[in-house]
Structure formats: structure tokens, C-alpha cells
Records
---
Amino acid sequence: MTDPPASAGDVRGVRAAVLGTGLIGGSVLLRLRDADVEVTAWDPDPETRRLGRERGLHLVDSVEAAVAGCEVVFLCGPLPTLPGTLLRVAEATDDHCVLTDVGSTKGGLADFARAHGLAARFVPGHPMAGSDRAGLHSADAALFGGASWVLCPLGSAGLTTFRRLTRLIMSVFRARVVPMSADEHDAAAALASHVPHLLARALAGAVHRADLRDAVLTLAAGSFRDGTRVAATPSDRTANMLLGNRERVLDELGRVSDFLDELAGALRAGDRAALLALTEEAGAARAALTERSLRPQRREFPVHGAGERELAYLLGLGAAGGHLTGCRVEAGTVVYTAHVPDSAH
Amino acid sequence: MTDPPASAGDVRGVRAAVLGTGLIGGSVLLRLRDADVEVTAWDPDPETRRLGRERGLHLVDSVEAAVAGCEVVFLCGPLPTLPGTLLRVAEATDDHCVLTDVGSTKGGLADFARAHGLAARFVPGHPMAGSDRAGLHSADAALFGGASWVLCPLGSAGLTTFRRLTRLIMSVFRARVVPMSADEHDAAAALASHVPHLLARALAGAVHRADLRDAVLTLAAGSFRDGTRVAATPSDRTANMLLGNRERVLDELGRVSDFLDELAGALRAGDRAALLALTEEAGAARAALTERSLRPQRREFPVHGAGERELAYLLGLGAAGGHLTGCRVEAGTVVYTAHVPDSAH
């Protein structure tokens, strides 16, 4: 089931800022520009700002200059910089300005924003797209098309902001907005992204130390190339991601290790039946990645007064593996359309 | 550095047989046919034979009918069937007929062939190419172009056979022939292929058991998709491969687990410097996969009387990560050209 095209009408006249123009921020910037959003950007690196200007992008020399008068600001810097940038931007913009980020872990920043009274303005986000490249020169306006883009509304007070941002992301990026709690995002992302990075590093690292290193590289075909591709991600980015979701990553890594131990145990015992059962169990999850069927869903809530119900619906939708396909506000009613797995209730 | 095209002159008039026409055997068959080799094939499954005939391939109803009068036979059945088929084919062909296989582990079959006096005729082989699909309908004549194809000469008595097969594989399949000992192949393949399959299954299996299974699948982007692709391989094929190289796979898995434990330890301790050092160490092996530079090499040996030196050269070449680009026999001399990593001696 394909998603219907979102209307581009939502973004006319919107003023946006992108702070940090590496691979992800640069791709956000290019896509906003292509969608005729009036977008200004900033990057701490003067050389990157120069490169951006050469490409005809509107790069300015300070955070404050970039966000002045904006209705939406994308925080796209490295994870450790986000809390500081968030406070600085909140200070420099008015309450109507929507703030979001694109970091790969969400719990810490969500707690920080709540503690600083920003739950109504800040919607933590995470577009599930990327590449093993880095930098503005690798940015790609089409990076997010069809990708899942997690948004984490921080309580019912943040729903107005969430709805505005959802419409913008659908219409500009053609992404599948997945509403989730920050904690559930971090648990799911640990398995969907962070642990795979650890496995890829462990495999590549073991090869690096192997006596037959060069022979292994010569023999490396699909399974090794695929299994280590993300080991080419810049180390800084990988370390930030892992450290930013440490407990969850270690928990989920434990579950993967448990499965690996079962596989190794069956192999050590030469127990073909057990080995087959485990490989088939694993194959089922992989098959679901491409074969899972989704059904459409529609829910309505009053714009005011049903915030907790609306919030519960949204967080439940993401936890069940669903995503939004539309978000309209009309005559006092917010109408969500969504796709949910057939297995969900 | 690209490999020079091999001459097609070597294969004119050659008669070949392919036994077992699944994904790999079928691809071998299609490529031999396209190269105008006179090729006959057999598969134990009548339906597969029917499908092959419909595609204009020469499928016959018995092993003996397929191999009659052949100069080279490719054994492409499942690993557990290979010893039996090898004996049957050796019986049905004369000493001039070269026998090889395409199985993903080599040590067991090499020992078996030696024990049955077939070291001069049988050259264990392993083309490092594949797909997560299966069956003749997924076969692809171009599957081996540019791939590494391991051949394991079983002692100096097998060198004449090795040279003939090397020329055939270079000229027909445009593959990079990697000469290796069967044991070194199994050690290298464990890291290059078998352990990656285990990791992919463990990751997919842990997701299958996760509370947030559907949310993980929704969030799954590049790292998860890549890291689990081979988990879609038919379970039977994966189990055969792992059981056929059990000790090596468990050894190498131990090394990967050690690296993973170091990564997890650094993460648990919040030791950013240690985490960065490990991720960079791993990144180096991954970078070498695409950036490694090779230099050309040329070696000559008398066709007769220097077998041990020639064998030692060949096995050393593969262990160092090199591959052959040419093998000519002229005026009593065998001339090998090769590419070797700059790091090798």
C-alpha cells in the first residue's frame, strides 16, 4: 500500500531554519529549499558555510541570525551540542516557533526539554535515513522520501506543535511520520539501528585483527559487505549515537547476544534441527520487513479538550509499527489517517 | 586496477557438465552455455530439469549421462551430497576429466578427495558470489563477473588440473581466481561469509522476539536492512554452510564476540576514547575493502619438476589476499600473472 501524496499547500510562506548542515541537516536544507520554503541555515564551520553559499544556499554567520522570524527550526548538529543549541534557539524565537531535532536518540533530549519548560514547543524527531558518508557535500534532497520520520510529542500540551510539524514533514519530505514516545523510540532504534552498528564494527574489527585479514577482504562478497557497510560511518557520529542511548543499546545487544548464543550452541552441538528452527525464526523477521501488510486507519479528535486521548492514540500507533499518512485540522476537528500493520489492533 | 580480459580461446570445444542446477549451479550452467561451451546438466529434481529444458538448456536424466565424455565437471549440489557425487563422477569419467565443486566450505571435501586418491583430478572451488534467492529461476549468467573464485589445489600432483581449471574459469566467468589451501579458505570464509550469516540471524531473531517488533521494523533503515539481508537466505543452505565449517565458524565467532565485548565494555564504562579507538580500528578494515591498492606480479615455473615451489607460490598468493589474473603454459613454462595487495611481500 503506497502513501497518498501530501499537499504542498501547507508550506507556502513558511520560514524555516536549519542549524548544522552536515549530511542530515544539509539534506533537510536542500529539500526545504526545493519545496520553496524560505529557509536560512547556520553551521559552526566557516568552510561549510562558504561551501553552502557557493551552492546558492542561504547560510548566515550566527544561530540568532538564522532563526530570526522563523516558524520552524531544525536542530541538526551533533548529539552533544543539542541541549545547548535548544536553549539558545528557544531564547531567540517566540513561542509560536516550532523546534525539532534530527538526533538518533531521543530520551535524554526529551527529558532536558521538559525540565526547561519546552514541552509545548519542542518535538524531538529522528528521520530514519542516512548514509555512511558525511558532510554537506554528501547531502541529498531525496534522502528522506519514503523514510520513517519519528516525532515524539512531549505530552498533550505539545500536540498543536506536533500537528503543525507533522503536516510540514509529510508535505515537504514525503516521509512517513511515526509518532512515538521518546523511550519507545530509543528502545526500537537500539535494535533497528544502534546494535546493527555495533555488530558491523565487531565484524570489521575482528577481520582487521585476523591473521588472514587480506584474504578475508579478497573473499568478502555480499554478506560481509552488507554486514559491515555502516562500519564506514564516521566514528564520532557512531560514538555519539551509542553513548546517547547507552542503557538501551546494552539491553538490546544482550538480547542479540542471547540469540547468537543459542545459534552457536546448536552449531556446537551439531544439532541441525535446532539450528534450522533458529534460522527460520530469524528469517521470519527479515521476511516481515518486506512482506508485512498494512491497512488504512482514520481517527478524529476535537482540536481542544481531548489531548490525552489523542496523545495515547498517537503513541500507540507508533509502538504498534504504524505511521501517519495524513493530519488535517478542520472545523475544530483533527483528522489523522494512518497505516497500521495487520497484526495491530 | 582492473583485470585484463582473459582470452576466450581456451574454451573452444570444451565439454562440460553441471550437476545440481540451483542458484549457483544454474548460473554456472547459463554462463558456460553463453560462452559456447558444450554443456550438459543434471538436477535430482524432475521439475527443475523440465524448467531447464523449457529454457533451452541441455538437462539429462542421470549423472552418468551428464558427465559422459566431459573434460570438466562442476559439482553444484548441496554440501552434504558432494562426497557421494564426487565418487560417482570420478567412477564415470576418465583421469583427464577435471572435477571441481562450488561448495561454501572446502576442508572436509578436500580431505575426502585425498583419502580417495582424487587429489590429482579434483580441485575444490568456491565462487564468492550469491544471493538470498534460490533455484534455477533465480540463476544469472553474470553472477560471477568480477567475483573472487577460490580454487584449492590438493598438492603438487594436482597442478596440471588446477592450471586447466584456472584458465577455464578466468576465460568463461571473468572471475578472479584465488588459489588457497582448503584450510585457509575455511578460516577466511568463516569471517568473510559464515559469521556474517550468524550475526544477521541473531539480529533478525532478536527483533522477532522483541516487544516492539513492529515498531523496530517500521524504523528499520539502512543499517538493519543491510545487516539482516542474508537472513533471508534459505535456512537449509545456511545450516549446511555453518555445519560444514563448524569449528572454524565457532573460532571466528569467538573473535567477533571478543571485539563486541570490548565495544560493549567501553560503552558500559562511558569511555568515549576507548569507544572511538575501537570504532576506528573497525573502520580501517571496512575502508580497506574499497580502498586497498593492488600491484601486478608475474611468476614463471617450469611445467614439470618445480611443483612444490609453484604450489607454495599459489597458496601464499591467496593467503596474502592476492588473486590470479592470468595463467599461460608455453614452451615448457607456466606463467602466472597476479594482483597482490601492496602490503604483501
---
Amino acid sequence: MILHDYLPSGNGYKIRLLLSLLGKSYQLKHYDIVKGESRSAEFLSINPNGKIPVLELDDGRYLAESNAALFYLAQNSAFWPEDSWQQAQVIKWLSFEQYSHEPNIASPRFWLSHAGMTPARQAQLADKQQQGYAALAVMEQHLKQQDYFVANRLTIADIALYAYTHVAEEGGFDLQQFPAVLSWLGRIAKQSNYVSIDDDSALIN
Amino acid sequence: MILHDYLPSGNGYKIRLLLSLLGKSYQLKHYDIVKGESRSAEFLSINPNGKIPVLELDDGRYLAESNAALFYLAQNSAFWPEDSWQQAQVIKWLSFEQYSHEPNIASPRFWLSHAGMTPARQAQLADKQQQGYAALAVMEQHLKQQDYFVANRLTIADIALYAYTHVAEEGGFDLQQFPAVLSWLGRIAKQSNYVSIDDDSALIN
């Protein structure tokens, strides 16, 4: 498999982390999204929405959207529960991640630590951070009662939420206010076959 | 089942439309989100994220996030494909809907037609509408080649995307630029057991 990706992306890292936990090998093809490399005609032919990551299967099929790739790769593994109510809980947290969490936690990090600040971004920063703290508070409340988000074990719900939470401080968030979240981050980082977000060992030209 | 909802919400309407297409009865409990009724202590006890819709099952379990409710209700029906690659395509479009479509198409509609405009909202409107048009263009490109988003038949991917697309003009979007999208909207509105977004026949006190 080839993962079309941008190394600092938490959305890409979700897939890299799951692939590593599953013990699956892949190649990482890098695009500098700050330079617009995910908007080229070539890239738009593999994802018309112009966003990394895109998972390319061995047979040449392409799958865009990080949480769709998590879903597909996790089938028939412990990271996707068998019970349909638990599956629905996983989808709930994947939706929460894409709607309430990622736009408010990933964007400040991207602006402050990667792409640079602009007046239009600065005007949105305080509101994004307020909503990002609200998302972290929802996670804290949930993780006070259980070690993982669904089914008392590590699933793709945790992997999806881990990706941008563990680097939230790069977006100006103080995680010390969320002790249950910090404990959960620690549990994930101790998994066997864990890889860090900047691991580029799968990188190809 | 009880759907905790706000009648103009496209996110709630997704679930109402699927329930109707499935021929399932339910009761609709209404919250005026403009008045903050989804932020009360009572509401937060059923969804700590403070957002409608929430599906309440007959046994008292609660499920937040509209696309999670679609996933759960569609199990073992024609609206959720059996093939895992097709399932991943559905999840891809549900993710696209929550990340690239809904925030850019639903928010302008909510501001212009329901909640009212504020200076902070006005400052974001042009950018939202630009990104909303980009999402509609991605849909148009896909629907030029096929009648439905996945598996050549109506699935929850279509239902999720239909909800806010069919009322996009309330957010200032001109759908006449997207003939394939308009044809697809028409195919969905012709389904047997179709209900409109303002159908309040399930409403309870």
C-alpha cells in the first residue's frame, strides 16, 4: 500500500499509527500541502477533494478521508468491535473528531506551528481554541469513567482522537487541565508497535 | 424510539428521512437550539457535546451524532452495503459531509435563514460559501458519473448529503450550476416514504 500524506498531518498519522499497530508495511509518498502539492491536477485525480491523506491499495484503488481508511483497515481486527452498538459508538466518536475536535484543535496547531498565521486566521483563533477546549472537556468527562472510548479497549475511535490530541499543545492548548486525557494518551503511547507522528521510515521519493 | 431534535436541522432530518424510508415509527422531541435548549443540564446529560440530534432507543440508550445514528439504523438494510470496500466508500462520504460539506453549507443557511447574522458570522460567510461551492463541485463531478454516491443505489451516504444540499439555497447557494446534483436531489425526493424536512407529524410535547 502507498499512503499519500503530509508528515505533520494528524489525519495522516491516524493511518500510519493503525498500520503500525496492525504490523502492516506501506510506503509513504509525501506532499507539502503548505506549498499546494495536494491541489495539483495529478493529486486531484486521486482525490477530487484535494486533501491528504489518501490510501492507495495494492490493486490501485484509492480511499480518501482518514476515518474511512481507519474503518477499512480495521475490519476483522480488534480495533473495530463486532457488536453493532459498539460500532455505532465508534462512528459517533469518529464524527465528533471530524466535526467538533479536528477543526478546532488541528487548525490552531497548523497555523501556529506549520503554515503560519494570517489576519484571517488570527480572527478565528480565539473561537477555535474555545471550541477546542470544549471538545477536550467532553473527552475528559468520558475518560474519567473508562480507559478507552469504546468497548473498554483500544479501537479506531481512540486512534482517531489521539492523533491531534497528543500534539494539541502545538496549537496553544494546555493539556494539564485534563488529567484523564493525559493518562489515556500515555496508555496509547505504550502500545507495542507504537510509532511517533514524525516517523518517516516508510518515506519514498 | 425518541429523536431529540430541532426541526430545521439537516442533521436531524437525515435520521427522520432514514426512519421514514425504513418505515419505522418514532417520536420527535423538539429543542429550540437558537434559545440554547440543547445546552441545558438535562440535555447535556444525554449528550455532553450539547448538540442535537440524539437518538433514544426503546431501551433508554442514547446515540449522538447524526451519521452514527444513520449507521446504526441502516444495519441489515439496503441503505448500508454488505461489501467492506463499499462500506468504506460510505464512511468516506459521511466524513466528507461532516468536514467539507456541512460546516460550509449548513452554517450559512443557519445564519441567513434561522439564527440571524452577527458581525463574527458575516466575517466568515464569504469563505464558508466558497468552500461550500467547492464541496458542491466535488459532488457534481461524482454524480456526473453515477446516479448515487456508492454502490449504484441509495445508501446513507446519499441521505447524509441530501439533508443540507436540498436546502442549500437557504444559505445563498445557487444549485442551478450543478445539474447532476439537481437530478440526484430529484431521484431522492421520489423515493417511496420520502418525507420533507418540515414534516412534524412525529412531534410530541
---
Amino acid sequence: MKQIGIFPNFKKVNTAKITTETIKWLKNKGINVYLPRIAVEILGFPQYQNLLERSKEILDMVIVFGGDGTLLRVARELAPKEIPILGVNFGHLGFLTELEIPELFSGLEKIIEGHYRIENRMMLKTSLPKNNLKERQFYALNDIVITKGSFARLIRLETYVGTEYIETYPADGLIISSPTGSTAYSLSAGGPIVNPNLNLLLITPICPHSLHARPLVISEHEEVKVIIRADHQDIMLTLDGQQGLKLQPNEEVIVSKADFNTKLIRLKNRSFYEILREKLAEGGHKEF
Amino acid sequence: MKQIGIFPNFKKVNTAKITTETIKWLKNKGINVYLPRIAVEILGFPQYQNLLERSKEILDMVIVFGGDGTLLRVARELAPKEIPILGVNFGHLGFLTELEIPELFSGLEKIIEGHYRIENRMMLKTSLPKNNLKERQFYALNDIVITKGSFARLIRLETYVGTEYIETYPADGLIISSPTGSTAYSLSAGGPIVNPNLNLLLITPICPHSLHARPLVISEHEEVKVIIRADHQDIMLTLDGQQGLKLQPNEEVIVSKADFNTKLIRLKNRSFYEILREKLAEGGHKEF
Amino acid sequence: MKQIGIFPNFKKVNTAKITTETIKWLKNKGINVYLPRIAVEILGFPQYQNLLERSKEILDMVIVFGGDGTLLRVARELAPKEIPILGVNFGHLGFLTELEIPELFSGLEKIIEGHYRIENRMMLKTSLPKNNLKERQFYALNDIVITKGSFARLIRLETYVGTEYIETYPADGLIISSPTGSTAYSLSAGGPIVNPNLNLLLITPICPHSLHARPLVISEHEEVKVIIRADHQDIMLTLDGQQGLKLQPNEEVIVSKADFNTKLIRLKNRSFYEILREKLAEGGHKEF
Amino acid sequence: MKQIGIFPNFKKVNTAKITTETIKWLKNKGINVYLPRIAVEILGFPQYQNLLERSKEILDMVIVFGGDGTLLRVARELAPKEIPILGVNFGHLGFLTELEIPELFSGLEKIIEGHYRIENRMMLKTSLPKNNLKERQFYALNDIVITKGSFARLIRLETYVGTEYIETYPADGLIISSPTGSTAYSLSAGGPIVNPNLNLLLITPICPHSLHARPLVISEHEEVKVIIRADHQDIMLTLDGQQGLKLQPNEEVIVSKADFNTKLIRLKNRSFYEILREKLAEGGHKEF
């Protein structure tokens, strides 16, 4: 652990202070620190040489100060590099973040000593072959979602798995989710909860206007193709609910497992099921 | 039946021809016919004196040429007048339309002879007391829907029935539906099917991000108040999925039963349950 | 309030003591008290003259010591008499019970002074016309449920509303629920929550083996007929989950609104929605 | 292909005739045929030497005459032997059966020539460690289901994945399903559809009396433990809905992936998704 990046979310209180303290702490240990340009500017540092944007190849780890949302953003940005990510949360418990602020330096100590494990999380990739986008490939850790605008008429999503026609969902949209994303948007649309260490894809229609549509679990080796059928242009593709792209009628969206994982640094023995209970279920047992 | 209006949907094939024939047929019977200004222009009629827009007070019936969507539009427009509506469908069976084109003139004959019944359908009204809209009241036959835009962060819908706090739904949106609307958007969001001759309100959250939210059926005498909690302005209210209004954070939406009904002209003995079977269920019995 | 019955559920701790104290308190006020024969025996009273079983006609009120389950039982037993029921709960909050033990005597004081209101709850009645049962009519406050045994093959429930054929549900069973019962078994099978002061029937299939089956809300004036199609005899009808009757293949079950209500004595201003929040929802707002 | 077993379901019409013809056809090819004792008796054959029950070790294939239900039964019976199974259906299309009667002999011809492929389907195993059953292990291809009797009070299912506590479901029961079983009982209880070539376990509560319970997808390497909490003894475990065992309160049920697969003989190129469309969805596109 010689080269460590830091991604601070400055919308959270105290981020600047914590980030500065962490930089100092790491430098004292003889570790080189890398920051995104925007953080350098906000923190008012002198012209920094270690810009994170230029150094992705050499980083041993990235620390994220923020919640699950910030971590999703960083995971997409670092996607093909497979740099281990440590999520440090300011607020309440997250599915992805590992430490809370009071545990920060004791946790970093352990990591530097090598006492941690890496948890691999499957990512998704998507491409829009009929679109003239500069970028050919997009990534997501949670989900790739196709939706119509709130006032637009419903769209029809002609869906294939491999070459096999599945169904044309008349719906508000369609969620293609990783196991990690099963506890995010997909869950609100009726999808199952999936152990995030599995490798599979989850297809969940949003408000389908046909009674027989159901969530579908497919193999990590299968590719999903969705052809957008609509008579209007108010259609959007979103990555992890954070990054959006406009889609056109008759456009094709291809989604499959990415060729690399998000690597989460884990120090604790909290299992997914434990986090799930805390996040979703009630403290006591409310029965009816 | 001396004063009859006609609302043609010109997006459907043959509308102009059928409308012209119907006008001729009605005039032969000594009936005065009223058309919307747009129809007069499209049909190329000479300056017509019987503009429907000026004559709502005196109409005995309005004939709608189009599907359920067109009928919803007319129902909202004629709302407080309670003019009976006859829906004539060009395509497949509807929940609201009553006749298909080949049955048109034999059906009109029966109606003129008084051989029909009126089916009352509860309507919804909504007001936005904190908004400076010119119109104070809006109406819907199917549903009043609050939704966020497709790329916006989720909204929180602080919901009251009367003065009673129900829940703050973190969700994509909320549907307040009449019984008639229970087979429309509400059904796709998990709501129950309701006999459309009942008088009640149905509250259905859209993709709620809390596991315990469920559709709620309340009395026709209860008023729903929803306060929009959001940190963005991409929020919309839609009437029957057709007419849209922008909403602001912290705005209040009040929904209750309207003071009048949509009056559908019925000639046949098809019950709601029969239409339901034809529209929703499979011809045969597909079991798994 | 001169004639008051008491129904104690002796499975609850302290029931005997509380019942004896209540009898003494009521007698001091000059009120005649009536007990079921079983209670007389358990309490070891001398041969009592005021047996509740013989005195239903003259009772002004019945006090139930127990939870919602005990109250359901009493409601069915007293069904056609419309005697007001006061539910006194030993444990946690109920949908139907009104007082907790510490509030008992102050509550009774208010009731005797006439400071209470009556809440009417719609009941269901059912008959099995093809069965040679001595009793011709059965009642339920929550629900009338048809189910197959746990090891039996699925049954088909040919369902009519009035004379109108609805569907033949291939399923584990079917719930016909009152608004009061909407927060009981029906909710676990995917039914909506209904304001219990409404008058309507709710039909909810249990684990239907066809994808298009949905809960159905019908009018209080409509009658449901279910014909049991099965090739085995492991089929049961249950009233409020408490009283069971064996059904035969091809047997008909008729369900409709009963001709009388359960009358609940209410002293507090707690609304249904308030109880709902406490019973079903989480204390805080757990979102995902 | 020298040793072939036949399992006929004699409840289907024509089974005896088809079975006899198939035996003759196979013998003509010099193949030894093995039948279950019951089939030998029904067909009135002379004392047969090739009893299937004694010969499981040497069979190259088993032909099943019947539907998916019959095939499930055979799959459990042959479980640890991994003998390839060919399902021949008398009626409509199945998820598991491969041929219809008219295709029987042309299909067998291809198989004998080696023109077929084997599709592996994950099986489940279960044990009841606290029970004194002679058999220590039971198998299922679709699902292992714990349910209460139809008139019994609800049970609480204290559920663990590995050593991790998940939840105590207050429910009618719990389904632990293989991917193959995802289109059976689990689907009727709200579970997702799973590509049957995946290896994973699906946990679906039946009519849970808590609002936050959701279907859960876990790894093929994880073991499920369910401790039955109930105050009555009307509790049952069923294998594929066909074989039942009584359970006691506080009994433990352990379920995991079996150490072997069901091997289905496939001749056609029908994919799972194609069968799914035919079995579950409507021919046309019924939208609402």
C-alpha cells in the first residue's frame, strides 16, 4: 500500500476536515496520496502533482468518503482498473461502505498491515450499437435502467436473452440489475433479493402493463438485448441511477456482465445477511 | 335527443368519413349536431354555427369516435356537465367504449328510441392550493398521478387521509385512482381490480423504496393530501396520463371524489367482469 | 347499561383475577353480569343464574378479555344480535380491541355514562347449499377462506360474482374478506389494505398458479359463488381462521355481506390509519 | 444404449399400449428393457427378469411416459444414479418432458445413434437431523416446502443461511426451490423465474404475515436451515409437492444443493425461454 487515492464527497459535512487529516496521516506513513482535481481545488492545495485522474494505473487502493451513492460513482469511474475501494461512511450503515468515521484510522492501520480481504462484486456493461456515442462501453455496479419520461406514453421493450426472444414488455421501463443492485431499484419494482457474491443478471420490468410479466434471473454468461419500441423520444438509459443517456425509438441496448469486478475492501465480519436485516427489516418482529 | 355533439379522434383511420356519415344520418333525423372547432376545420365545413365549445349546456349526448384514451379526454373536458357519452371504438374492445363501427347506426337508432341505460362512473378532482394556477380544480376519470422524472432522485410523498397522517412514501410516485382507473396504471403498480360501479379511492405507490408500502382503499368521502418532499424540481402531476402539470417541492396536492360523474351510455349487457376477462385474461387457461 | 356479558379468554395470564374484579365492580354499580358456562365453571362460582348463553337477547354490551382473536370469536357467536362489544386487551395493541387493562375501569365508567361511540363493521355470511349441514348460515368478521390441505394437489375455484363468471383460479385457495379482514390473511396473500368502515368484499386468490390473477374488490351488494373443482377431498372452509368445515369436490360456497354488523364500542380517537401505522409499519423510516 | 428402463404413468390413457410397443421396438434393436414391478404386473407380463428396481446401476437411460409430474417422481427415485431421463408427454408441452408420442420412435432412433445432448438440472437435498427417520437424506428436483395444515395457526420459520440468521418468517410456509422449481410453486408465491441451468437456491415465503419478507436468491454453496416454531403439530414437509413427511415443532430442516444432477435427454433446440413463453405467457399481447 504505497499509492492511495481519496475520493471525497464534499456534500457531506466535515469532508474537507477528514480528508485533510487522512492525507496527513497517510503521508506520515510514507504513502503517496492522490486526489481528484476537483478535490485539490476545493481543499485549496498548492498545485498538486499527484492528480488521481492521471494515476489510476498505479493506485493500490481508493478511499471513498461518502455513502453508497458516492461509492457507486467511484466504482463506475475506476471500473476497468479493479482498484480496491474502501468506503467510509459519514452517516448510517451502507450495503457497500465498510467503515464509519470513528473507525477510520484504526481501520487504515489494519489495511496497511495487510489485515483485510477483498470482496468481488460483479459489474454490468452496456453498449448502444446503433448510437454514435464516443464512448462505446458503459459500466454500472447496481443497475442499468431503461425508462420513459414521467409524462410520456408507455414504451414497449422487446427483450432478448442471447438470440432468444423473451417478451415485449409494455411498461414504464426495465431494470437490468447485478446481484449488488438487487437491493436497490429492482427491489422496489418487485425483484428478489440476491446474495451479492453471486454472478447473475436480474431483469425486472417496471410497472408492466401486462399481467404475466415477472422478474427473471439469468446466467452471467447470457447477454440481454433490448430494442426500444416507442412513438416518442422521451426515453432514458441510466447507470446506477446516476448517469443518464438519451435513447431513441428502435435503439438497441446490449447489457452483459463486465469483464472485471468492483473490489471492495472488507475488514469486518458483517455478512450481507446481517446488513440486510439492519437495512430492510424492522428491529422487532411486526406481524399482522 | 335533439342536440348531439361529436368528438372525433382524427388519428384513427376513417374518422373523417365516419364522422361525416354520422352527421348526415343525425341531421336526417332532425337532430342538431355540434362539433369541436378543430373538427370543423379538418372536415372543411363552411363556417359552422354549432360549435361544441359554445354549446355544452344544451347537449343531450356526445358521441366519441376513438378508443378509451379519447373517451378519457372527453370525459375530463365535459366533466361538470354530466353529458352522457357514447364511446364508438375503431379497434379492439375497450373498458369504456360501447360500440364498434359496424354497430354504429343500429345503436344510434336504439338510443334515439330511448333504449339505453346510463352507467355512472365516479370521477376524481384535484387542486393545488399552494400553486398560482388560473384553474383551481382539475378532473380525472381514471387517475391522478404524481411522479418524478426518469432521471431524478426519488421523491418522498407525505400522505394524509383527511387530517390523518398515513405515511411518507419514498417512491417513484403515487397513483390516486378511481374504481374505473383500477384497471389502468394502478394495476401495473400492483393495485387491486375494483368494480367500476363502486365509489371509493385507491392509493397505490409506484416502486416504493420501503418494503411495507401496500395499496390502500379508502372511502369516497375521504380526501387525500400529498405533500411533495424532494430536493429537485423534476416532479409532475398527470391527469389520466394525458394532461400534465409541473409540481414544486413542498407543494400540496389535494385529491377527492368529484361532485359529478361521467355518464356512459350503455346498450349492451356486457358486464365489467366479462370485459375484464376478455381484456386481461388469457383465452384459454394457462396454468403453471 | 343494565345487562353486561363478559367473555374471558382464560389462556391469557390474569384473566380470572381481572374477570372477578370486573364482575364485582359492575355489581357494585347495580349492573347484572352474564358469563358463558365455561367461565362460570373455571371461576368456581356457585350455580350462576345469569348464563350468557341464555341471555343474548337482553344484553346491552359484552366485554371481551383477550386479543383480536378472541374478539373475532365472540363477534361470530353474537353475530345476529348486534350486541356492542368492548375489547379489552392484555397484550399489545389490536385492530379490534379498544382498551388495555390499566384503562379498564376508567373506560367502563365512561361507557356507563354514555360517553362512547359505536363503530359498525361489516360482516360476511356464507352458506353451502349442496351440503346437508344443520346450520344453514355461517358468519365471519374477517374472512371466509377456502383452502386445500398442505399435501393435497391444487384445487380449481370456479368463481362467480352474481351470475357473472369471473375465473377458475388454480390455487392453494381463495380468501373472501371484509374490509376488517383486509389487514389479516388477505394482506399476506397480496390483497390491498381497506378502510374497515367501508362496505365491500375483497376476493384474493392464495398462491394462484396462473399469472394473471389479481385481488378483486366488489360491491357489498354482490354475492360470490365458488364451485370447488378438485379430484381429492382435502378441502376446507374456515371462518376467521378459527372455525373449520370440510368441503367436497363440486360443492358450492356462497358468500355475501351479512344482514347485520359487528358493533365495536369506541372510547378513543385513534383512527384506523393510526393503528395501521403502529401495527404494520416500522417505527422509523427504513428506506432502501 | 444397451440397457433402457421405462417408467409408465398408467393414469394416462394409452400408456399400456405405448409401453408395450416401445418394449417391442427396443427389443428389436437388441436393447434390454427394464420395468418397475408395478408395470410388470399391470401389463400382465410373465415373470420378468429385468426388474428396474434391481438394475439401477446398469441403466443407460430411463424413458418416462407421463407429464412433468411423473418425471419429477422418477428424478427423485433415481436421484443419486444420474441416469439420463427422457420425458415423453401424452398431453401438452412440459418444462421437463422432451417428446410427444408421435415423435417417440424417430426420437429414440436419434438417441440410439447418439444424436442428443444432456441437460443438467441441479437437485436439492434435505435432512431432518432431529428426527429418527430411517432415511437420512431426501431429494427433490423442484422444491422442498414446509407448510402448515390448512386449519392450523400460522407457524414461524426461523431461517438461517449457513450460520447466518436471516429472519423468522411468520407465514403459511416456506419454499426452498431449485432453478427448475422456480416456475412451479415458488412462482405462485411471488418468486422470480430463474434460468434452470443456473445453480442457486431460491427461498420464497408463502403468505408471510410480515410486510417486509421478500424472495431471496442464495448461492449453490450455501446451506439453508429452518427451525420450525409452532404451538401445534400440523406441519408438513413436501418434496416436489409429491412426497410428504410430518414435522414437529422445534424440528430442524436442512436444505442444500444435492451432490448430483438430474440429467435430462434433449433432442430439440427448444430453449427454456421458448418453453416459458408457450407455457406462461399469452399467445398474443394482452396489454391493459
